[in-house]
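Hi V.,

You were right to ask for the full record rather than a summary. Here it is.
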Amino acid sequence: MAPIRSLAVHREAQLKVRLVALLESVRPEERLAHDPLGIVHEATSDADREVVGLIAALLAFGNVVQIRRSIRRVLEALGATPAAFLAATSERELRQVLKGFVHRVYVGADLAQVLHGARTLRLSHGSLGAAFMHAANDCRLEVPPFAASHPRLYRGLVGFGGALRGDGEGRGLQHLVPDARKGSACKRLLLYLRWMCRPNDGVDLGLFSFPPSELLIPVDTHVHRIARNLGLTKRRDASLRTAIEITAALATFDAEDPVRFDFALCHLGLSGACPSRKEEAACGTCSMKPHCRHWPLPRARR
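Predicted structure:
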């Protein structure tokens, strides 16, 4: 094997080691204490966890303190058993109890529309997990070539997301539950699926039967920037195509569960440990420095 190729293989192996080490460096309870998912773990039944999880994931936009505050405000309106509350509440009543709610570009009417969609899905299929699986297995939906590696996930995002939006319109609703057919990264829906589909490891919940190997990493600005720095993608847009490319790169480390590295990538950005540009002081002790495009290693001697 040529020296340059050997160096590339070695660096790839070392990147996996460092990503795993970063994951293992934070205990589950520490991760949950500062994450919207921590609130989901407080629910006492699987039915409530999938409903609270949907609320928490869809509101995961902005500052984490603000996100958690908004989630708790919604849950106060829904009561101690959100799943039962939805089953017994009309869309009109949902709009009333959420009147005055605002989170970034979302208002109470947007969330009421989505929760009404969730209510309809739960009544039709028994659970949101079963509803997602029904959409994922609906082969009537044509899958575009760029999503051919993840056909069931793509169908699930389109069908499940469309059912949550219903006939509602408006910027807030379209941002709250974006349409995968328009190329959106669907970050919050993919975050929800990560929480629900990955095995119960003390962080994620393992409530849905969809295989983790078919998931895509949720891509926001932090994950996109870190992934570009580490050479996991060269794409400049935070789109569904980019999520597919990053996940494919992570699958070389763990084909059965590539999105388990989501926290490690997101943590580097959210924690401020990885600045938006090259900084000697901040980058000097970073374990990812040998893999970062801002700090290229000397060329191997031939």
